[in-house]
Design brief:
This protein is α/β, with parallel strands linked by helices. Helix content is 39%, strand content 12%. Strands 1-6-7-8-9-10-11 form a seven-stranded parallel sheet.
Amino acid sequence: MNSRTRVRRAMRHETPDRVPVMCQLALGHYFLHSGRKPAEIWFDSDAFVDTLLEFQQHYRFDGILLNLPGRPSNWREYLAEAGQSPDVRAPAPVPFSERGSETLFWRNGLRTDFVPDDNPHTFQVDGGALPRADYQRIDPDDPGILRLPGYVWNTWHAPHLWDIPEAADLTDEAAYPDWFTRGLKRARELGESVSVHAEVFSPLTHLMELFGYETALLGLLDSPATCHRLLELLTRVVIAQVRCYARHQPDAVLISSAFAGAGFISRAMYAEFVLPYEQRVAESIRSFRIPAYTHTCGAIGDRLDLMVQTGIDGIDTLDPPPLGTVDLQRAKTQFGERLFFKGNLDAVHEMLMADQATFERAVRQRLEIAAPGSGFILSSACSVSPHIDPDRLATMTELAERYGCYDQTEVC
């Protein structure tokens, strides 16, 4: 059974040969261990997909998540210059962790700073933060708000760097250039036997990026009507992106909703500001007969039932204590027939910092709890740390083959 079929069966609660394994690796893990420059992985769609597939093959994972959108193939033409810290003199293939940091300077006056083990950050050329919207002054009906340099579409997807018209209607799928799906198309072509998942950001995440996190949380309290009008607009943006991805047949679409846990908003606020909007996104994904699942970090044990109401097919992360509040056995009993689960391994205490015996015991426990009846993908709860021992990740698949078989008479 190939990996693509294995994950598909697990997501549908059909019986695969064994529990599939699919971890989302922090971008810093690729930066540290791939031998490629972080800027190439971050801005070059071909390099990004090739890196994901190389690590998928090395760890024998069953799937990959494309958590960056496509970029134009000529992205380097938008650079003014590229600088590196003074200690960066060693040529490849010396790991980037031994070569310092890197800064890209763009023709439009912005800069992007890279460090060896974390996501890059874009600033004004003098290092100042990019401007964000002000919920007390914003006009929710002005489409120009989506052009603010501090907004997620800009800092992560970067139209301030590329030739995207100022008047582009981001709620219309036709406004998105062909390169937006470049990575997904390449992954689908090269990874025919691999489960390839695309990612969109939830409307609430877009709102957080539009205002900045602290300001957005205040806005939910001070100007809820304005926030609802913006969430309506942002929902249409996300659905347009779903339609772009759906044309290229991803095996699933992840709704990244990292900031919808109890560490940020209450259960009541989730019901008001998250549920109705993610419900529409999930409905759009499923209308293409593509599974939809949600990634929400941290304390979500008190809102699993609300997450079910969004209409998703599965939940990613499921952080256990102390990082989160999910009891996997209780979640499996209450929602395991309705949802597939991916995750629940504590990425810090059971993976990064644990000794090998503790790690293996944690993996076996998750398999014993969640494997019965299918519907489980073995994974770290949240992203795998950049500094985790690569051998530990390879061991996950070995453990799934030994203890996660559905035919218990043999090792898969």
